[in-house]
Fold:
Amino acid sequence: MDINYLAVVVAAISAFMLGGLWYSPLLFGLRWMQEVGLTEQQLQQGNMKLIFGGALLFNVLSAAVFALFLGPAPGLMLGLGAGFAAGFCWVAASFGVCYLFERRSMALFMINGGYCTAQFTLYGLIFGLWP
Structure:
């Protein structure tokens, strides 16, 4: 198992930061809150250490396994292509199946599926550019 742990940590942190922006009021945060039925007050009442710590750990896990999937030095085009495909065709498509049966909105699918597509594309960019 040839894995660049520093690249994995950078990728995980980049996804964590992307999530902070993606789900902020600057982008999709307000619509996301509406779609999942949460208020700002309810969000503040969550266990932030558990939520943010867990999110970062899940990002490390997904980045590490994606790095293993890509293999060493995949190159930019393979990294980007595989990242987009993993995010859109595996993760977002799987969300789509669940959201259809759960009767969730297309808007929520676009927000969450879009984040995962961007997340894995970002992973692919980082692993593809990493020496």
In short: Residues 4 and 67 are 8 Å apart (CA to CA). The helical segments are 5-22, 29-36, 40-44, 48-70, 76-102, 106-129. The chain is about 80% helix and 0% strand. Residues 76-102 form the longest helix (27 residues).
